[in-house]
User: Which sequence fits this backbone?
């Protein structure tokens, strides 16, 4: 079966179009309901918290692919201005202000449902040209999910379970299969099911930090196999995030293909996908206490019409 045939078959088999009605804009986040958020909150026992975000600065991984750059942070007012007294404020008060310019997917982020199309079609069977225009995503803009991404998080540290002598890091090109995910969940003693936000650690970010960014953004990487689409659909998870740039294995498993799993899970399944998450500190804590579930709060910035968003996910245990 070639890429075109495999993608078309998976898109048909795992489509959620119409599942939540013709006007739906949330996709699999519909699985993350009030009860699931309560379940997540009840997992907080020790009161420890972990940011799962990389830093947003000029030293990030971007190399210009698809015109993506690292954040540019500029000060508008500084302590120097205050000390010189040239800010024009009374009775000695001074301040600092700043601005940032960056692609919305240059670091830790969510892919919105308007980010990927399949043969000109967007999530829930809408025409791509009717959804995303020069005005932005008019239907499934990232702001539509700003208040709902909080619930039960599950860490599947595939690298720790399968990494062997590599010290908990999977090699580039390693395709994480359904069997790998199931084995990791069993090793952790954790279940994955409806409404969960799943975090998959491959160790790729740890290697990039040790060896330098190299081709972290866009190059070879471990990641999910295309053939995990069935598991992603069957488990009815709300969202999934990885510590890699592209979520799925690179090089992709088909010749002349580009991100085929994206093409299935975002516009057809309606799955929320996170990339470039920093799972290192959380993974160390989960290994130490043996608990791989936690409350996860990961709201995107409500940027009207955006097809992706920076995020600072916070895991609480």
Assistant:
């Amino acid at each position: 079966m070639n890429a075109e045939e495999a993608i078309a078959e998976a898109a048909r088999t795992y489509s959620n179009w119409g599942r939540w009605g013709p006007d739906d804009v949330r996709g699999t986040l519909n699985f993350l309901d009030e009860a699931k958020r309560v379940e997540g909150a009840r997992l907080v026992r020790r009161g420890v918290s972990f940011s799962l975000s990389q830093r947003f600065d000029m030293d990030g991984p971007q190399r210009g692919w698809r015109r993506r750059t690292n954040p540019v942070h500029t000060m508008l007012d500084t302590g120097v201005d205050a000390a010189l007294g040239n800010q024009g404020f009374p009775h000695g008060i001074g301040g600092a202000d700043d601005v940032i310019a960056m692609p919305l997917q240059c670091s830790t982020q969510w892919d919105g449902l308007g980010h990927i199309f399949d043969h000109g079609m967007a999530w829930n069977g809408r025409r791509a040209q009717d959804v995303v225009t020069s005005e932005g995503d008019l239907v499934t803009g990232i702001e539509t999910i700003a208040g709902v991404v909080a619930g039960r998080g599950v860490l599947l540290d595939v690298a720790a379970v399968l990494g062997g002598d590599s010290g908990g890091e999977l090699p580039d090109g390693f395709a994480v299969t359904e069997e790998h995910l199931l084995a990791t969940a069993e090793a952790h003693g954790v279940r994955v099911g409806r409404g969960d936000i799943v975090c998959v650690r491959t160790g790729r970010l740890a290697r990039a930090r040790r060896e330098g960014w190299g081709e972290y953004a866009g190059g070879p990487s471990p990641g999910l196999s295309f053939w995990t689409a069935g598991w992603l659909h069957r488990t009815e998870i709300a969202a999934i995030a990885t510590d890699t740039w592209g979520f799925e294995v690179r090089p992709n498993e088909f010749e002349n293909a580009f991100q085929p799993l994206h093409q299935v899970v975002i516009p057809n399944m309606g799955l929320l996908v996170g990339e470039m998450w920093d799972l290192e500190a959380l993974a160390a804590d989960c290994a130490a206490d043996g608990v791989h579930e936690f409350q996860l709060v990961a709201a995107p910035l409500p940027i009207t019409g955006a097809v992706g968003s920076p995020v600072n996910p916070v895991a609480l245990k």
Remarks:
- The chain has ten helices and 17 strands.
- The CA atoms of residues 2 and 110 lie 29 Å apart.
- The two ends are 44 Å apart (CA to CA).
- The mean pLDDT is 96.
